[in-house]
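Catalogue entry: protein
Contents: sequence, fold tokens
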Amino acid sequence: MIWVAFIAFVLLMLALDLGVFHRHAHIVSTREALGWSAVWLALGLAFSVLVYFGYEHHWLGLGLAVDPVDGQLNDGASAAEKYLTGYVVEKSLSVDNIFVIAMVFSFFAVPPLYQHRVLFWGILGALIMRGIMIGLGAKLIAEFHWVLYVFAAFLILTAIKMLFFRDEQTDPNKNIVVRITRRLFPVTSRFHGEHFVVRAGSAAAREGDLPGAAAERDEALERAKPGVLLLTPLSLALIMVETTDVIFAVDSIPAIFAITADPFLVFTSNVFAILGLRSLYFVLADMVQKFKYLKIALAIVLLVVGIKMILAAPLKAALGRHFNLYLLTVVLGIIAAGVIGSMLAGRRSANSE
């Protein structure tokens, strides 16, 4: 029942988001994005109180199963610590996703008017995919504890790659999923309002955003395939956002399993971190390039989490049962150092010009 109630709550919030507050397409202002970011942050933090009482009093069976990561039953305090640590780690790693989403929107020239709609459906798909990945990961860890060490090695290698190898800007059109999509479905050259799919020859297909050569190509496509469903560039942007999240989930899901393998804690911390990604994007999209040390900070977070996963037993013996609280403090300190260092570097650069 606790799972049903939580999923129903998430679906209700998503329905209110798209069906009420963002029913009509509009450009999301920084002020609006800050407001929604505060709402999602408050909900994510407030949920830790529910986690505490739920596990402390074993509501609907919470906290009755041994956590494979540390071999302990989760009481209210340890469950809240693990949830908050997982939430902060996942929230931090989701910031890296914003860099790529901004690049995707720029490449496909997605109008600001429709960016929220793409992110909404992209994040809904991400929640479903992450739920599946978390279920599989929890089952693997429960049956094969050594999988934790595989996850740890993967996190450490990913951190080293982020620290010492520069990511190259890739052409989204070369993405294999996008290429397969273009091969299987006809794609228009221009946007058609907020539609992901239009039918050739329909009113929506005739009302594109970009006139001229793009319109002429689309008209030729419609004449060649009258009545056929056509994907718009908005669909390609959505496909790239979904693909990007799956790639990033491969990093972030093992990171949360370094903290806990309790499926409810893993899933809820992931959900709240992802739900706030849309509003966080509109806050940070124009600022991500200014945080030059943030990517380094995120790599160090992955490195710390990976090492913690390997040394969980001796760390627990040295720091006590609540050593996840120390990990939470370290992660917050690393992220804060990355942000402050970036701001100071930006200020020095501005003063030198």
